[in-house]
Write a structure and sequence with these properties.
Blueprint: H1 2-15, E1 29-34, H2 39-54, E2 63-67, H3 68-74, H4 78-81, E3 87-89, H5 97-106, E4 114-116, E5 137-141, E6 143-144, H6 155-159, E7 163-164, H7 167-179, E8 184-188, H8 208-217, E9 224-228, H9 237-245, E10 252-254, H10 262-267, H11 274-287, E11 292-299, H12 306-319, E12 323-328, H13 346-370, E13 375-383, E14 390-394, E15 400-404, E16 413-421, E17 425-430
Parallel strand pairs: 1-2, 2-3, 3-4, 5-8, 8-9, 10-11, 11-12, 15-17
Antiparallel strand pairs: 6-7, 13-14, 13-16, 14-15, 16-17
Helix pairs in contact: 9-11, 12-13
Bound molecules: iron/sulfur cluster.
Iron/sulfur cluster binds next to helix 6.
């Protein structure tokens, strides 16, 4: 979501006459769009801002701003750590940055930071512009905020209450993207399964989110649709069947579980049980047997015992996740669990984290090896990071595929025979002739 917010801001700044430079040293403005979900991300952002401010004598005109969730959460408090910051802008005010920068450049250096943290009705609709140019894959923000209160999470505080964009606006944005060459859209929201539930009726048993998926699928030129993230609570049969019935909806779903222990799920304020989660997985596999499933899990949540952890490990074995983001619990000031004891020792968290990653790695490798010898349809996204003449894209199951080919293939969906696999990547060869 931050990546999408940053892109929308870059597009707005371009409209106001600003331009992106490749080299940081050539910039008059550096804006750090920050995350507050984990402590490590905050430490990194503060370190980066401090470095920029400490070297400002070399570039005295430079304006430095902090945006996003950490700005929202810490507000003016950031000035204690980072005196000399020029801008502190919260999550619902990012679209006002062009005017704020104009103001900063117009005024003589007062040494005072501009701070804007207020909430704004309709701000979710401001995340709609894209930087010009053809891009095979694009993110589309469909909603902002979250009404849940997961005990470890700071997002409801930093992003505010759930606010949805109108379906027609989202469809118009996707249509414009298709016209400029985008083939795949990923619909973004904190809980996409809640999309439109207050504004739109269920029609023919289909939730507003499924209606949105159908509307986006009807756009000529959009070939692939993905979304992130659904919440297990809102995952019903209509959505599982959408994977079966909407060919453009890719067979890969990110379904955060967080823990396999009902006791810990309850303490986390996650309103489902491990059994319910497994039922959703079964429902999805019933609709699409080879669907790829990824997840998020937290280890070392306060009070997590060996038995609780074993339940999570067992769930990992049972589901056979294709991919998992495993996090060691870190207390977030401002989250509902702010003051609770962080009572699982770091070394135990580390062991549990590695154990889950090992299970996931085994299953992910087995799945990736099952592609070897098969031909996968790959949407070519651009050059691979390493290797001259190598291209990178993803198969329908969201696995990264690397192969040799010409730059003219970027933006096309091409057949690639998979030759080898690692936990994270499939290597293959382009199958010629290409279908016309
Ligand atoms: S559902 Fe829970 S974890 Fe996800 S954004 Fe909302 S509060 Fe945070």
């Amino acid at each position: 979501m931050n990546e999408r917010d940053s892109e929308a801001l870059a597009a707005l700044l371009a409209l106001s006459g600003y331009e992106v430079v490749e080299d940081e040293a050539a910039a008059d403005v550096i804006l750090l769009n920050t995350c507050a979900v984990r402590e490590a991300a905050e430490v990194k952002a503060i370190g980066k801002a401090r470095h920029l401010l400490e070297h400002r004598e070399e570039t005295p005109q430079l304006k430095v701003g902090i945006l996003g969730c950490m700005a929202q959460n810490r507000g003016r408090g950031l000035l204690k750590n980072l005196p000399g910051l020029d801008l502190i802008v919260g999550t619902q005010q990012i679209h006002h940055i062009p005017e704020m920068l104009d103001q900063l450049f117009a005024q003589r250096d007062t040494g005072k930071a501009l701070v804007e943290l207020s909430s704004e009705e309709g701000s979710q609709n401001a995340i709609s512009r894209h930087t010009p140019g053809k891009k095979p894959c694009a993110f589309v923000s469909i909603m902002q905020g979250c009404n849940m209160r997961c005990a470890y999470c700071i997002v409801p505080k930093t992003r505010g209450r759930e606010r949805c964009r109108p379906l027609a606006d989202i469809v118009a944005e996707c249509r414009a993207l298709a016209a400029s060459g985008t083939r795949e859209v990923t619909l973004l929201g904190q809980i996409v399964t809640s999309y439109g539930r207050r504004e739109m009726p269920v029609v023919g048993g289909k939730s507003p989110f499924v209606q949105l998926l159908e509307a986006v699928a009807a756009i000529a030129g959009i070939e692939r649709i993905r979304f992130t993230s659904p919440h297990p609570r809102g995952f019903r049969r209509d959505l599982a069947e959408a994977f079966r019935d909407i060919p453009k909806l890719m067979p890969a779903v990110h379904l955060p579980v967080q823990s396999g222990s009902d006791r810990i799920l309850k303490a986390m304020n996650r309103p489902y049980t491990a059994e319910k989660y497994l039922e959703i997985v079964a429902m999805l596999r019933d609709a699409v047997p080879d669907i790829c499933i990824s997840t998020d899990a937290i280890v070392g949540f306060p009070g997590e015992t060996e038995e609780d952890f074993r339940a999570t490990a067992e769930l990992f074995e049972a589901v056979r996740f294709d991919m998992a983001y495993v996090f060691k619990y870190s207390p977030r000031p401002g989250s509902p669990l702010d003051a609770a004891a962080d009572d699982v020792p770091e070394a135990v968290k580390e062991t549990r984290c590695n154990a889950l990653l090992d299970i996931m790695g085994r299953h992910s490798l087995a799945r990736n090896q099952s592609y070897v010898g098969k031909v996968e349809k790959v949407l070519v996204e651009g050059p691979a990071r390493r290797g001259e003449g190598r291209l990178m894209g993803h198969n329908p199951g969201a696995r990264k595929v690397v192969f040799s080919g010409g730059a003219d293939l970027v933006g096309k969906i091409v057949p690639v025979r998979i030759d080898s696999a690692t936990v994270t990547t499939l290597e293959g060869s382009l199958q010629l002739p290409l279908p016309s």
